[in-house]
């Protein structure tokens, strides 16, 4: 696997875990178009790589992501003034393509949420498989207070926490901390900032206990429940189950259980 060259992301592979760190600390890791494109490139590069089992998303400088980049908005405004009628559409829709890609990424996405988790950062949190928040992190959807809308984020917020809470947060721009984010279901847990690294390590250990291919198929199964008829989901799940039982992973998992040892993929 060859990882792409990146300017706004720090990439570090640690065994089966790829750490992707948003690296624009001067703007609290605001999501520029360059960062969006680099995230897309990273997701594409590892999508078919079975050796990468988890992707950790985090931010430098004590912040996850403070939302969209104002400079990109200014650039789009200049292009629109110059006659490009699709400037704002293209900028916004590209973020939607990236967050959609993150949502279906075969690996387990673990988001470490510290400091500002706003706008686009909030959206990324809502498509993670596991979200660990610092209890003092600051969450919010500030778009309507700026005269714009959470256009590409809103559907994923609704899927994450339900319609009624999504309406409240989007239509008030309320700010809240990591404890409240965990209560709402945006994050799965909130811990003191000093405990974040320990909790992340525990989570990655849990993921390593799960069979790589089984995890990929299970993630797709869960996502299919949102878009396919139940009978179709269950029919495909039965086929996938039969394949899993007959696979090398299935044999190793069963043998490890009988022999009271860890399976090979967890060692």
UniProtKB/TrEMBL annotation:
InterPro entries given in the database record: ClpP/crotonase-like_dom_sf, Enoyl-CoA_hydra/iso, Enoyl-CoA_hydra_C, Enoyl-CoA_Hydratase/Isomerase
GO terms classed as biological process: isoprenoid catabolic process
Molecular-function annotations in GO: catalytic activity
Pfam families: ECH_1
Annotated signal peptide: none
Superkingdom of the source species: Bacteria
Family to which the UniProt record says this protein belongs: Belongs to the enoyl-CoA hydratase/isomerase family.
Protein name as it appears in the record: Enoyl-CoA hydratase
Source organism (scientific name): Isoalcanivorax pacificus W11-5
